[in-house]
Specification:
The structure holds 2 protein chains of 2 kinds.
Chain A lengths: L2 E8 L4 H29 L2 E9 L3 E8 L3 H11 L1 H8 L8 H4 L2 H11 L26 H15 L1
Antiparallel strand pairs in A: 1-3, 2-3
Helix pairs in contact in A: 2-5
Chain B lengths: L9 H4 L6 E8 L3 H11 L17 E6 L1 H7 L3 H4 L4 H5 L3 H4 L24 E7 L2 H18 L2 E3 L8 E4 L19 E2 L10 E2 L19 H7 L3 E10 L1 H15 L5 H13 L42 H5 L18 E7 L14 E8 L2 H13 L30 E3 L6 E3 L6 E11 L2 H7 L4
Parallel strand pairs in B: 6-7
Antiparallel strand pairs in B: 1-3, 1-4, 1-5, 2-3, 8-10, 8-13, 9-10, 11-12
Classes of the chains: A alpha+beta, B alpha+beta.
Chain lengths: ~160, ~450
Amino acid sequence: MATALNLTAPLKQDAESQQRLKELAAVFAAQVQPKIDAVLAKSEIVHFARILVIDNKYIQVITEFDGEPDDYAEFFRRELPDVFEAIFALVEGAPPWAELNNRNTFVEFSRKLDVKALGTSSDGDEERGYLFSAFGDTTVREIKKLLNGQSAASA
Amino acid sequence: MQIDFSGVQAIIIDPFRCSTSRHLLFRFTDSQGARAFIGGLAPHITMADVQVDVAPDPLLSVGISFSGLGSIGVNPALLAEFDPVYKSGPDADELGDVPSSRSGPANWWDNRFKTEDVHCVVHIYVKSDKAAQDATQMVRDLANKCGVQELLPRLDGTILEGRSLGGGKLHFGYTDGISHPDVCWNDSPTSPSQANFRMFLLGYSTDDFPSAPNNGPAADLVRGSTYGAFRWLYQDVAAFNLFLSTQGPKLFPNLAAADAEELLAAKMMGRWRDGTPLVLSPEGPNSELSRSNDFGYATQDPSGSRCPFSAHIRVVNPRDTPLDSIVVDGVPVVLRRGMPYGPPLQGNEDDGVDRGILGLFLCADLRRQFYVLTDWVNKNDFSPVYDANRHAQDPLVGNRGVRRASTDFRIPGKDSDVTAKNLPDFVHTKGTVFLLYPGKATMAALSKQI
């Protein structure tokens, strides 16, 4: 079963931070999204991912991925430091990036912001809430392999 | 720069090759006594400028837990800077010590005390029983004088005592201590494969080799120290022997029963029991290769037909095996120090006697180095070579109670695979504590009010 990350952080409400949020949103599709896209593809573990802003008060990074949250957090800290630096600069209570930019602090802070979903995990992990998957334990790598096999067979 | 070995505990630099080890556990009852205990021990701790192979008995090491540092009275502002994994103490999920299993922390230390009660461990390594007795008495006298309470972790009230089985053997019959990381203790490595000393010593954190405390007074305090996980691991020799004798002949029916058992044992470890690597000698042990460490997997055994992908040594040190792109730090490296305890099992029936390994795993970053290894052991999911079953485990030390763990051990062959089914637990954790192994300057600071 994939793991869900429901990272939810309060956004700073001062005018300067809100202006930077607006600027981030404006350039997201053209400048940020391609970078994230490339790294997510490279990881070969992420099923789905998106970033949401709610009423300019909260930012959410919501993903479903295979494997352990710590490995996931470290991979993306290493691969997308500028993206996370830009996001966490907007987050109320986030340590400065110089402090956050190491494995232990980043993992700990990400864990703190990860909101547990309602309900219980089907695999018995008490730290995780309910997550439905139509694909059971099938990983991204396995799905891609199966899809590649199908394409080869139908070609 | 060059590390000053006189300021670093010898156990970090060199394995102690002694016939006996004793591991005394202590709880501090007040900060003044705790500081006096550390101060009194410090001159007896063997530092790395000593040639341990020729040094007289005893060789001593000391480790202090995070709760121990708190009891010593270390300034909370400094404590806040320590590694969060060290601060939190052992995490059953990360270790694979499934709470509902025999290895669960609720069962540790034979239920005589909790891990948080362990403030300090003194390791005594000696070559004679007399030296063991004298050193134990010296440490106990000091503890009594300082009002430090000894914790006896076994139901029968005895201490943890390691005893060499001879020939570097462990209870499952394998030869231990063949492969140790080549560490460069300065900034001029002689080969690219050498491990940087910052992976093991605190107080030298860089962007490439981070450790906590990262900088400032807390980093100054721990410079020359390291973290360690001290593990008390029971080995179920009877279950292991039964598994070999029942599964070996089934898996390899063309071999004589004894040969089939040996082959299965070798496939589980990745080396024959004399130490010969399967990659170099797949057909049988070769005494000339029994200490060999010069081999890889990517080109010498890409299919796993010599050494199975899940074999113990291929999991804990996959060498040049391609890793998943998510594994950004590469293969984690820890320094292993261990010794068997308990008498060898006589016969095939379990005799109810406690035996296993007392292991110490040293590193500068417990999450990046130690926990990654325990994770890989319990779920082989770090390389594309595991795509066939990403829930496979190390057949020797994995905990089968881990969520969705596979109990199949796949053994690829030249023409076809065989799979050993229903792997049981061969190893049970009986205790784990995370410790700081202070350098000389750290011990001096801890013995004062800081």
